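Quick one - first record:
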Amino acid sequence: MLFADGVINEIAGRYGKTPAEVILRWHVQEGFSTIPGSRNEAHIRQNITVLNFTLSDADMEMIRGLDGEKRFYTGTFESSQRFLEWKPED
């Protein structure tokens, strides 16, 4: 899993951030749309902190180098149908 990747964890350690924060920040700096989600209040707060730091150009390159052309979300259309019934209070 990407959260356990050595490069991601090395970068996270240098910035005092979690792997999730580093991954989200990388997406933001690359200009990708990100829609992080969580029901955990602490994780929601962490998601906001990705705007409070910037990854160096070298760190951005290291993360780009991880591209193994593999998907990290492998859900199917059918498995995603459960979200049609989801309500915010769930």
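second record:
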Amino acid sequence: MDIRPGDILTMKKNHPCGANEMYVIRSGMDFRLRCVKCSREFLVPRNKIEKNIRSVKHPEEG
């Protein structure tokens, strides 16, 4: 799966604040994500994130 910093991930499950969109700050063996609604940052292993992604928006695509 091609996920780069700057992408917006739409997740299957919501964050506790109610948003389901996450901004990718860093990608690698684990992801540093920021919630779009509440700006909370967290670190999650790649295998947990990849199975919970619904869609990926790349910023250069519009």
